[in-house]
């Protein structure tokens, strides 16, 4: 029987355990989207994870969702990430960059640009962060067919920069209602061209983005995160099981490093997707921003259900030594939600390993 603490192969890597640090937005970059020394220290503290997946990194200014999030579309941004990857590697870790295009979840006050999406449809009753505080998400501009193809390829360009910066691979953010998820959604995607309509049309953008990235840096360096049925940011999906089954079937021949599923739909659907996916599967057991972070029991349950690795999000905020705490069944500290997005080192670098 698999345990969290077994060594496991993932793509081209050999991981010392099955614990993954999930991507989490922390808004600690500078105004130019550069990674900072504090970010390098933060990830280095957590290098005992089998794999770290960074916070979402925008592949372009147009793809930026929130203020003070990092990018991978300029030479300076690319160089700034070298301090992060070096710090993680020196501490014995492995790190993938999560490439995240916000699509319609953005604001002109953040980027100076009108957000884009599959269709000119804004999420209902939704505010997004801006430099002056939360504001309603505006109606996006619908991408043309040509522009949609260009945005799909933007993930691959960012992935090439990630490899230059020393990352071991990349994870495309296809979850939680951002651009890939918007194309999958039957409420956000009202297109009538080949990027919309049928299930085959709605998965096309995701397939093109992943395929281009796999061709750019090699499939064994590429993962994809998904949140079936989550409905986050009002990206509602119909026929969830059929939609994601078709997506995984289209991606299976590529030989990707992994699929990363959030537990955002019923357990049987997730188990069926496990059976449909021939490669490595990471499961994140907690619904995003749910009442409790995942713990050891939920992780063991998902390993029994067929997951190859288990990712932890909020549990990693206040527990940089999470692997050892789980191994020794030590109590977990709780992070202060007030410090999640406030910037600075408080609530970021000041959590410590367990003190016996």
From TrEMBL:
One of its GO terms (cellular component) is cytosol. One of its GO terms (molecular function) is oxidoreductase activity, acting on the CH-CH group of donors, NAD or NADP as acceptor. Its EC number is 1.-.-.-. It holds the Pfam family Oxidored_FMN. It is an enzyme of class 1 (oxidoreductase). Its cofactor is FMN. Residues 4-332 form the NADH:flavin oxidoreductase/NADH oxidase N-terminal domain. The keyword Oxidoreductase applies. Residues 110-139 are annotated as: Disordered. Keywords: Oxidoreductase. PANTHER family: NADH OXIDOREDUCTASE-RELATED, NADPH DEHYDROGENASE 2-RELATED. Belongs to the NADH:flavin oxidoreductase/NADH oxidase family. This is N-ethylmaleimide reductase. It comes from Lipingzhangella halophila.
């Amino acid at each position: 029987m698999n345990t969290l603490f077994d060594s496991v192969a993932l793509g081209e890597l050999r991981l010392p355990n099955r614990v993954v640090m999930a991507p989490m937005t922390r808004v600690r970059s500078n105004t130019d989207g550069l990674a900072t020394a504090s970010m390098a220290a933060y990830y280095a503290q957590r290098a005992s994870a089998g794999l770290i997946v960074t916070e979402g990194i925008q592949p372009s200014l147009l793809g930026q969702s929130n203020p003070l999030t990092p990018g991978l579309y300029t030479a300076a941004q690319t160089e700034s990430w070298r301090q992060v990857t070096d710090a993680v590697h020196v501490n014995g870790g492995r790190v993938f960059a999560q490439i995240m295009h916000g699509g319609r979840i953005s604001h002109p006050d953040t980027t100076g640009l009108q957000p884009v999406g599959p269709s000119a449809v804004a999420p209902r009753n939704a505010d997004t962060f801006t430099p002056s505080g939360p504001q309603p998400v505006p109606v996006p501009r619908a991408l043309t067919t040509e522009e949609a193809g260009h945005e799909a390829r933007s993930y691959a360009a960012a992935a090439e920069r990630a490899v230059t910066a020393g990352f071991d691979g990349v994870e495309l953010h296809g979850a939680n209602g951002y651009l890939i998820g918007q194309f999958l959604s039957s409420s956000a995607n009202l297109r009538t061209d080949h990027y919309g309509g049928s299930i085959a049309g709605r998965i096309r953008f995701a397939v093109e983005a992943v395929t281009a990235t796999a061709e750019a840096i090699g499939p064994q360096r590429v993962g994809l995160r998904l949140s079936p049925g989550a409905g986050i940011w009002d990206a509602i999906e119909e026929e969830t099981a059929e939609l994601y089954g078709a997506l995984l079937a289209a991606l299976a021949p590529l030989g990707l490093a992994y699929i990363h599923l959030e537990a955002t739909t019923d357990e049987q659907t997730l188990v069926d997707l496990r059976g449909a996916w021939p490669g490595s599967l990471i499961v994140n057991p907690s619904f995003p921003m749910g009442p409790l972070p995942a713990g050891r029991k939920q992780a063991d349950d998902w390993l029994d259900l067929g997951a190859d690795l288990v990712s932890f999000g909020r549990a990693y905020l206040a527990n940089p030594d999470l692997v050892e705490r789980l191994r020794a069944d030590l109590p977990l500290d709780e992070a202060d939600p007030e410090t999640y997005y406030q910037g600075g080192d408080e609530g970021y670098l000041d959590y410590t390993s367990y003190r016996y």
